[in-house]
Amino acid sequence: GRETLGPKPRKPLVPAPFHHSEHFKRFLFPHDDECELRDFRLSFRQLRWDHWIVAPQRYNPRYCKGDCPRAVRHRYGSPIHTMVQNIIHEKLDAAVPRPSCVPAAYNPLSVLTIEPDASIAYKEYENMIATRCTCR
Amino acid sequence: CRASSEESQLTASAKLEPGPEPWSLLQPVDGDPRSDLLPPLFKVLSGSRSGPPRLQPDSRALHYMKKLYKTYATKEGIPKSSRSHLCNTVRLFTPYPLKKYASGDQETGIFPPADLLFNLDRVAAVERLLKSVLLYTLNNSVSFPSAGKCVCSLVLTEPRASGKTPPRGPYSVTSSSQLELRKNSRWIEVDVTSLLQPLVAASQRSIHMSVNFTCPTDPPKHVAEAREGLFGSLLRVPPSLLLYLNDTSAQAHHGWYSFRYSKRSPRRPGQRQGVAACPARQGPAQGRRAPCPRPRPRLRR
Fold first, then answer.
1. Residues of chain A positioned with their CB less than 8 A from the CB of B52
2. Which of A48, B150, B241, B298 to pair with A132, CA 20 to 30 A apart?
3. β-strand partners of B173
4. What is the DSSP letter of B4?
5. What is the pLDDT of residues B19-74, one digit of tens each?
């Protein structure tokens, strides 16, 4: 919001009106369309897997969806590269895509299955439930 | 990353020509196509109809595994972090009884030798055996006044010898097992880990064993009555084989590993916040790294 200084007669520097409260609100309460974690509860019956996956009954893998704001560091812990990519997209070449909203951390899932030979297996799989989103 | 590049090629190729089922081409990184969620996931993505109807397991075995699941995981399916043991895989096998499972001789308290054949084909090469038990199911819960003591002898006989290797004679391992029976217990576990450890490590897929129990023939009256109930309900069902395993592949969850390495090493006063000495969340199967080197104590200036 700083005025650019030039040959023009020096005007007293008056910073552009900066709505702190607006920015603060946006910082704390992202808009609905911003990148965040969302639920998607599915039952293995929908995938027609209920004849071999005995447990859990319902599975919520969650997913990340939304626009990545320009100043991504403060909320998403994104690397500086993300802001560089944003600047390239906006200032230099729109063919370079904006940063994407993707999962950054996961939880494991325990699965009880009936194997083809009728044996029963309890297994724990890594990275099956998204727990946090980021912009990359 | 090999798997991910193959995945991208596969999804690309799946769009270009019908070709074989995409999921059948991708072998998981550890090369073991058996114990994995990937094949069925790709089957759904390729839209092919669900595979051949599966054999249905024994209902008692299924009941036991559902109880185990509730002990190990929450309703949403997340492993309970309160668990201390290392196993991230438990497999239950029901035997192919080689002959009709006879009922025992209740007077002398001697069980018949149960002749059992287990096919461990589903155990993957990346799964390490931690513990193994024979699981006897009681038809009704027997309340035993005190722990029974029986000697259980297990005789392993070589499965059908293939042409090359000369058949070894049967060899037996006698393990004396304390039959711990709690109130209203529905199951009896006989530990057979020492017997099966070498076989599972050698990737032996077919285990042929006969199990023989002998219990003291002059038990006190109350124990004899309770044992009567035990035999009556125990002898009719052949035991299942339970394997507690640690899957060392990358896609298996290693709760003990992340728990152990995620703890912050206590910072000493004056020590600067350095970069974590260990790779974060490097799964034990991806490149066997030496355990986290202990940082050398800093000299105080």
1. 116
2. A48
3. B154
4. H
5. 444 434 444 444 444 445 666 666 655 555 455 666 788 888 999 999 999 999 99
H, E, C per residue of B147-213: CEEEEEEEEEECCCCCCCCCCCCCEEEEEEEEECCCCCEEEEEEECHHHHHHHHHCCCCEEEEEEEE
DSSP letters of A29-93?
Answer: S--TTBSEEE---EETTTTT-TTTEEE-SEE---EEESBPPSS-HHHH---HHHHHHHHIIIII-
Instruction: Check if A8 contacts B (Cβ < 8 Å).
Output: no
Quote the radius of gyration of chain B (alpha carbons, Å). 25
ipTM for the predicted complex:
0.74
Question: How does DSSP assign B57-81, residue by residue?
Answer: PPHHHHHHHHHHHHHHB-TTSPBPT
Give the span between the Cα atoms of B88 and B203, in whole angstroms. 19
* Beta partners for residue B118, in sequence order: B207
Find the residue in A nearest to B45 (Cα): A47
